[in-house]
From TrEMBL:
It holds the Pfam family Epimerase. Signal peptide: none annotated. Residues 5-162 form the NAD-dependent epimerase/dehydratase domain. GO terms for molecular function: oxidoreductase activity. InterPro entries: Epimerase_deHydtase (IPR001509), NAD(P)-bd_dom_sf (IPR036291). This is Uronate dehydrogenase. Gene3D superfamilies: NAD(P)-binding Rossmann-like Domain. PANTHER family: 4-EPIMERASE, PUTATIVE (AFU_ORTHOLOGUE AFUA_7G00360)-RELATED (PTHR43103:SF5), NUCLEOSIDE-DIPHOSPHATE-SUGAR EPIMERASE (PTHR43103). Belongs to the NAD(P)-dependent epimerase/dehydratase family. Keywords: NAD, Oxidoreductase. It comes from Primorskyibacter sedentarius.
Length: 278
C-alpha cells in the first residue's frame, strides 16, 4: 500500500496506531489539530488539518489508498459542539475519500451507537441503532453515511464499534475492554481484508463477559487474544454492589446511558491517559 491517512493521530488511541500503520504502507500521513505530534516513525509525516474543512480533507486524502478515521471529539457534549468535528467532519472524510478514489474508510465508531440496548441482550452487528447520547447519534450518522457511500458510490467502509479501549478500572470494562494490542489487530484486519463492502464489527477483546457478538463479522479475520477476566476479582471487590436500576449499569453504553444529553460521560469513567510516547 502506498499511502494511508490516519486522523486523530494526536489522541490516545491514535498514539498506539501510528507505528503499526506506518509499517503497512510506504507513506503514513498522520493528522490532527495539534501543531505537531513529536517524533515521527519511518515513512510517517504529520499534517495539521481541521476535519471541518472539506478542502483540507480533499487535499489530505489525495493519492491515499485508505483512510483510518479516528478524529473527533471523543465524549458527549452539546449537539452544537459535536456538529462540526463529529457530524460534518465525518461527511468531509467520506466525500474527500470519494473525490480522491480512496478505496476504503476504516472508521472508529462506538458502542454508543447502540448504547441504550440492555446489556443483558447479547447484541450482534446487525442490532438497530439506539444511541445513548448526541455522541452516539454522531456514530449512527457516520455509520449510515458509510452505508450510503458504499451503496451509491462504492467507497468501502469498516465501522469499528469500539466498546472501551482503556485500562480496566470499573466493572463494565471487565466485559467491554479492548486492549491496545487487540485494537491494533482490529484495525490491521479492517485494512488488509481484501473485500469488505460496508461492514460493522465490535471492538472488544476476547473477554469471558463480552456482551456483544461478532459472528457476522468473522470474515474480517479479527481474533482478539486478551481477556479482562484477569482483572475481574479486584475490580468487582473495589466497586461493591451496583445499582441495578441505573442505566449506566444496565445498558451497553455504560455511563453514557446515564448522563443528561450534552453532559460529559468520560468525566465519570476514570480513564487513565496512558498514550504511547514516541
Amino acid at each position: 500500500m502506498k499511502k494511508l491517512v490516519l486522523t486523530g493521530a494526536a489522541g490516545r488511541l491514535g498514539s498506539y496506531l501510528r507505528e503499526p500503520l506506518s509499517k503497512m504502507c510506504e507513506e503514513l500521513v498522520s493528522t490532527d489539530l495539534a501543531e505537531d505530534i513529536g517524533k515521527l516513525y519511518p515513512g510517517e509525516r504529520y499534517v495539521a488539518a481541521n476535519l471541518e474543512s472539506l478542502d483540507a480533507m480533499v487535499d489530505l486524502l489525495a493519492g491515499a489508498d485508505m483512510v483510518v478515521h479516528f478524529g473527533a471529539i471523543g465524549d458527549e457534549a452539546p449537539f452544537e459542539t459535536l456538529l462540526g468535528p463529529n457530524f460534518i467532519g465525518a461527511y468531509n472524510v467520506w466525500e474527500a475519500a470519494y473525490r480522491n478514489g480512496v478505496r476504503r474508510v476504516v472508521y472508529a465508531s462506538s458502542i454508543h451507537a447502540v448504547g441504550m440496548h440492555p446489556k443483558t441482550d447479547f447484541i450482534g452487528t446487525d442490532a438497530p441503532h439506539r444511541p445513548d447520547t448526541f455522541y452516539g447519534l454522531a456514530k449512527c450518522f457516520a455509520e449510515d453515511l458509510a452505508s450510503m457511500y458504499w451503496d451509491k458510490r462504492q467507497v468501502e467502509a469498516v465501522c469499528l464499534r469500539i466498546l472501551s479501549c482503556a485500562q480496566v478500572t470499573n466493572p463494565r470494562a471487565v466485559g467491554s475492554w479492548l486492549s491496545y494490542d487487540d485494537l491494533i489487530q482490529l484495525v490491521q484486519r479492517a485494512i488488509d481484508t481484501p473485500v469488505t463492502g460496508f461492514s460493522v464489527i465490535y471492538g472488544v477483546s476476547n473477554n469471558d463477559r463480552a456482551p456483544v457478538d461478532n459472528a457476522k463479522a468473522a470474515f474480517l479475520g479479527y481474533r482478539p487474544k486478551d481477556n479482562a477476566e484477569q482483572f475481574a476479582e479486584a475490580v468487582f471487590a473495589e466497586a461493591g454492589p451496583l445499582d441495578h436500576q441505573d442505566p449506566g449499569n444496565m445498558c451497553h453504553g455504560g455511563p453514557f446511558a446515564s448522563v443528561e444529553l450534552g453532559n460529559s460521560g468520560v468525566a465519570t469513567m476514570n480513564i487513565v491517559d496512558d498514550r504511547k510516547k514516541t
